[in-house]
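Progress narrative, work stream C.
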Amino acid sequence: MSQIPLPPLPTITRLASVTVVRHGESEANVRYRRAVETGDVSVPEGRAEDAGLTRLGEEQAAAFGRWSAGVGDGPELVVCSPYARARRTWEIAAGEYGGRGVPPVVVEERVRDRENGVFAMHSPPAWRAADPEEWARRERSEEWTYRPPGGESLADVALRVRGLLGDLDAVAAGRRVLIVAHDAVALAVAYVLEGLGAPLPDRPQVANASVSTWHNEGGRLVPGVWNSTGHL
């Protein structure tokens, strides 16, 4: 018997709004682009979570802060990734609030970046050189479900983001929430809020310091803007 598929069943929520901003341009973003352009297979030392902002990234964070401080219905709670680039983005943005009260912030590990496991800090050329077989498996796999050894798939990120949004619905009902995080988190929020049975995201990469918003209409969060950089 044929069945007519239902449209996505919307996520019911008591949050007033959710805004996601990706961190400003980071040193890791610059290294990644250069490696792709040049084929550099070197792997920098250190941890992915410690990468800081570039000068441009700091300017982007300040521009976002000025925009956020000027919005009449600005955030009432900030949820920030523990990664240095996200924390620095909010630190700079909060400094632009001036005399206006800065909303409280909680650092939450569930909005950390997608983890690449043993290939953390590897650009595509470095990954391909280090393990050609694993790189080939990645190329054959669906991006949403591919999980590197010791790392996460985008579906894994969505699972932890779903749990966080459920917790926020319980403890921050009626409040406007700002999430300062990463491109994978923005994609996951969009997917979760679209509801049960939502198609997998098919969106361009989320730009540095871009803003995506959802606001409450009748108990569900509906999209406002996606990947907006007009404030920059």
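Work stream C, second folded protein:
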Amino acid sequence: MIRIKPSTAKFNERAFNNFQKELGASLPIEYKKFLEKNNGGTPEGNIVELKNEEIKSFSVTDFFGINNMKINDLRSQYETYRERIPSRNIPICRAEGGNIVCLNIDNGLISLWDHDTELMDEDFLPANSCFKVASSLEEFLSFIKPYDHEDALDEYKVEDVWIDPDFLKELKSDKD
């Protein structure tokens, strides 16, 4: 499993129980244990690869915890996203690029919420904006692999480049 630097805020059992009451559901025990250990936190450089045509991979930047600073506080993030993500889901961590990883409070399913989908369609339905990532938190955590972005660039080389002819003309005219 990937290393996660725990939050400096300590897990608060009472605040966690109050949050569950607000949700009207008990969160999975494995999620509570994760919060007791890390209470959110920041993972090392990582990648989660998906078997999806639209989104191939993502990186987790921050996990949310109980009574953390507002930007990484579970309750605060839930209030921010509750109308945007599918119902019966809570945001558990932030992914690179503004997307959110969600935990379904009924079945423990982990999904990636793609914020771009709500910008593309006026008839947007939050239920259509998620991609399944894992069947449980434990499975999700096992999918997070260490990844060094700098080393990864060494593996790629440019094979072909296309420049819009109109853009090229504009660049040349700016030089003159």
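DSSP finds seven helices and ten strands in the chain. No further action is required on this item.
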